[in-house]
Write a structure and sequence with these properties.
Layout: H1 9-17, H2 23-30, H3 40-49
Length: about 60
């Protein structure tokens, strides 16, 4: 998923399960989309597929937290 940081899609999904609500959360926790940015769209897709739109404003309500 993220070649620069060596982050897998499994790790991103795990962070989403652990409460990551936005790209900023994923960047802070894993460094995703922090260098070249190529993984950003894929990471956003994982957020959306989890039921989250990635905005982080709902405090987790969109994912049922």
């Amino acid at each position: 998923m993220c070649i620069c940081r060596g982050v897998t899609d499994h790790q991103i999904r795990q962070e989403i399960e652990n409460g990551a609500l936005s790209m900023a959360d994923l960047n802070q926790r894993l460094g995703v989309a922090g260098q070249c940015g190529r993984c950003g769209q894929s990471a956003k897709s994982l957020l959306k597929s989890s039921g989250c739109n990635g905005c982080g404003k709902c405090g987790g309500a969109c994912k049922g937290h």
